[in-house]
From TrEMBL, chain A:
The family this protein is said to belong to: Belongs to the complex I 51 kDa subunit family.
Pfam families, sorted: Complex1_51K, NADH_4Fe-4S
InterPro entries listed in its UniProt record: ComplexI_51kDa_subunit (IPR050837), Nuo51_FMN-bd (IPR011538), Nuo51_FMN-bd_sf (IPR037225), Nuop51_4Fe4S-bd (IPR019575), Nuop51_4Fe4S-bd_sf (IPR037207)
Record keywords: 4Fe-4S, Flavoprotein, FMN, Iron, Iron-sulfur, Metal-binding
SUPFAM superfamilies: Nqo1 FMN-binding domain-like (SSF142019), Nqo1C-terminal domain-like (SSF140490)
Cofactor: FMN; [4Fe-4S] cluster
Domain NADH-ubiquinone oxidoreductase 51kDa subunit iron-sulphur binding, first and last residues per copy: 296-377
GO molecular function annotations of the record: 4 iron, 4 sulfur cluster binding; metal ion binding; NADH dehydrogenase activity
Domain NADH-ubiquinone oxidoreductase 51kDa subunit FMN-binding: 42-196
Protein name (database record): NADH-quinone oxidoreductase subunit E
Automatic annotation (TrEMBL), chain B:
Record's protein name: Ferredoxin
Domain of life: Bacteria
Amino acid sequence: MTAVLSPGLLAAGDPTLATHLAVHGPLRPPAPDAVADLAAAHGLTGRGGAGFPVAVKLRAVAGAAHAGRRRAVVVGNGAEGEPAAHKDAVLLARAPHLVLDGLQLVAAATGADDAVLAVPGPVVAVLERHLAERADPVPVRLVAVPDRFLAGEESALVSVVDGGPPLPRSKRPPVRERGVAGRPSLVQNVETLARLALLARGDRRAAAGVLVTRHAAGLPVDVADVPLTARLDAVLPLATGVQAVLVGGYHGSWLTVGTAAGVTLEPAELAGVGAALGAGVLAALPEDRCGLVETARVVGHLAEQSAGRCGPCLNGLPRIAAALQALARPGPPHPGLLADLGRWCGLVVGRGACSHPDGSVRLVASALRVFEPELAVHASGCCRARPGTAPFLPLGSGA
Amino acid sequence: MSRAERLVLDPIGCRGHGVCAELLPERITLDEWGFPLLAPGDLPAGLHRSARRAVAACPARALDLDVERH
């Protein structure tokens, strides 16, 4: 696949501590205040999906700990419940010590005395061995996270760390004030932590890159470390046989090939076309698949994965998913179905405790825009998908 | 200094009883599934008493008043 790789995050040839130290050198811990300053100076933003400035979060948690006179807890988030995303898994497999270095940096920055690395169950054992090689000032606990779409949501992850279910909880009070064990808590994606560990070593490019998981027909799914200034069509092959691009994953947006080919991965530029990198997923939908069928299948999964805690999401997402499934079948749709779908989308946005309804509706709205011509094809009883083709977008682990 | 009050809903706590919409129809309507839709913005003057009554009457304790001092 065409690559605009920078070395950096995935530069080490193997995950051992010896190779980590040989490639990156030792981490000289900066003064606690210097960590947030460093993140601010380089404009480092979270790589878990929301893109929130790291420095602001660090200072907020440190401030909450100071105000409440309680020690903070830091949590490295490697849950990656998004079925199409593998970048956190690849990072933890190839550069675990960068992640663990970053966890120590944010622990120092927030004055935390408890550090947690939350990861999928199957990788706990190997990370346990990596941890045993280190002599970290703040002890690190490994916590296994169940494989659910919302398990990595900040408040759901805190619940898991506290021994509860992987479900989001109310945002009042926020996790930064009352998180793990009721203590002020910082939850930061593992890629963000690894980038911080490179920044602290003087690698200025670290804040200007992003890990992406790439899906394209005929090529193995892979993970690449690419600069944000890269053009999307240099990262993902779009020249032939592609009809649309999914940017950001299942809370992301479909773009036409023409739109996608004209932008870089810079957040402001993607925002200009109604997209965001989110969980770092980039998928080039081949010509012989149907975008409505693919989206209906994904939205069915999103409805199933709703925590079911907020009324509008609980009631709205299954109806939205059923409407999309009806639109994905060739044949004239039930009169009023599109109007119902639009109304239900409007009724779930902004009314959940987490961003699941908003993200799901973003995907649906972009599909109705980008695949509008296919809606007309379906109404006439046809579908562009080649019969018998397997679904393009994966659902669930290993799918 | 003025006090601006704003209704806030805990969407997880809310079970859609609908009491709030009966007590404060000026600011709260129910969607087609029975869950409250709050009018955006601060409470207008004159509705503070009924707003407080709606907050107190919520069986799920999911409705609250946020006070902002300007």
